[in-house]
Write a structure and sequence with these properties.
Glutamine Phosphoribosylpyrophosphate, subunit 1, domain 1; alpha+beta; about 20% helix; six-stranded antiparallel beta sheet; 5 helices
């Protein structure tokens, strides 16, 4: 899968950028433009043509329907779009809990859960994600709200990667080769057990009271790359009480 979001939509952690890119004459490869990244992705799945959806210069979503090594599902409803990688072993019980139809797949469920959190905020977002059993990674683009939400399960059976394109756009994919070819050294694994919302930032849903710490990352060639993010067990966040109509899902937990 591939998701590209303009820097007007997503403000990623500054540590994703490779420090060497800002050095003159560094001699390392440079990140590609979003247009080139789309071509790289399409060429990587030439035998199983990916399905894609563009939103002008704001966002681009694409996925290959191949089920290897993990199934990928896509859903779009009411200007909310989701690419889901993996499967939920407790999907049937979640469908009953949310009162959804039996034909609901993982991507459809995630959109409905997101809508519930966005509009009513009955639970903290980290609590909803902790209720998901199985292996999963997903990206949601809420076109009406102009927001992005992505999360990755904690069991590490699925990997997501994110990086920075030449124009500052954020690139997210489950294909490491595509990310490396697209973002050069300005990429890193998306941290497992974490979620990112474009209005809140990166947080751990496994440890919502702890801050995340950027850890320098050096590749096999000895070059500095985008940083990894780890839970800082010694650093706690200040709790934010839920008050008034502003206490929707995005702000229902400890803040970054």
């Amino acid at each position: 899968m591939l998701a590209i979001f303009s820097k007007s939509l997503v403000d990623p952690p500054k540590e994703l950028n490779c420090p060497a890119l800002h050095s003159s004459g560094s001699g390392i490869n440079k990140p590609k433009s979003p247009e080139d990244i789309v071509n790289i992705f399409q060429q990587s799945y030439s035998q199983n043509a990916p399905l894609s959806l563009g939103f002008g210069n704001s966002a681009f979503l694409a996925y290959s329907p191949s089920k290897l090594p993990h199934q990928r599902t896509f859903c779009g409803m009411d200007n909310m779009y989701c690419i889901f990688v993996g499967n939920l072993s407790n999907l049937s019980s979640l469908i009953k809990q949310y009162g959804l139809g039996k034909s609901t797949n993982e991507a459809m469920f995630v959109i409905e859960a997101y809508r519930t959190l966005r509009d009513r905020g009955p639970y903290p977002a980290h609590q909803v994600l902790m209720d998901l059993e199985g292996c999963f990674g997903f990206v949601i683009f809420d076109k009406n709200a102009a927001t992005v939400f992505t999360a990755l399960g904690a069991d590490e059976r699925i990997q997501l990667f994110w990086g920075i394109a030449a124009d500052g756009s954020v690139v997210i994919s489950d294909n490491k080769d595509v990310i490396k070819a697209s973002c050069a050294k300005s990429f890193a694994p998306f941290p497992s057990g974490c979620m990112y919302h474009s209005e809140v930032g990166l947080t751990s849903f496994e440890h919502p009271k702890n801050k995340l710490k950027a850890m320098p990352r050096i590749d096999s060639e000895g070059a500095m790359c985008g940083a990894n993010f780890r839970v800082d067990v010694s650093s706690k966040k200040a709790s934010m009480p839920r008050v008034g109509s502003e206490a929707n899902w995005a702000f229902s937990g400890p803040q970054a």
